[in-house]
Amino acid sequence: MKAIKFVILSSLFLSASLLQAQNQLKPADGYSHDIGIMINMMEDLRTRITAQVKDLDQEETDFLFDDNANSVGALIMHLIATELYYLVQTLEGRDWSEEESDLYMEAGSLGPRAREKYKGKPISYYLQKWEEVRMKSLEGLKKKDDAWFSTDIDEGINNHYVWYHVMEHSANHMGQIALVKNRMNKRED
């Protein structure tokens, strides 16, 4: 019986992976090659996270599954804060403004203050903020080329790595958001 289940599951996985094979990473239009591929990945992750959370109600947006957890709203703010931090550093050559710092500082590290600060706003608020920051990133990155992308900004850190970090940060927290959503469903059992 286990062998039959394995064959069925293997067939389903293979079929699903063949369907996925139609997706390709290609440079986004209007960007240099390497930046365009990074944009493609960043936008794919943002689209997937948005699809995962866009229909959350207020209670779900603010849901904490324990005293040390972060809400989906706070996690989205964390993604925004990370991207904005690197946007202003690498594309604008500055630090956060006082206004940006007031809005995003707690989101950068999450924790108790972020749990308190980032609640009571609809998921659309967070997604709109992310859209605004992403549009600035896309605009700024469109003006750069792959030579800039490979330029070191500090010893052992180049612009490519910084924007890779923005992208992989989204991937990491996409899993965390899925966990929070899973815990929401468990509370009703």
TrEMBL record:
Residues making up the signal peptide according to the UniProt record: 1-21
Keyword annotations: Signal
RNA-binding keyword on record: no
Annotated transmembrane regions: none
Recorded superkingdom: Bacteria
Coiled coil (residue ranges): none
UniProt protein name: DinB-like domain-containing protein
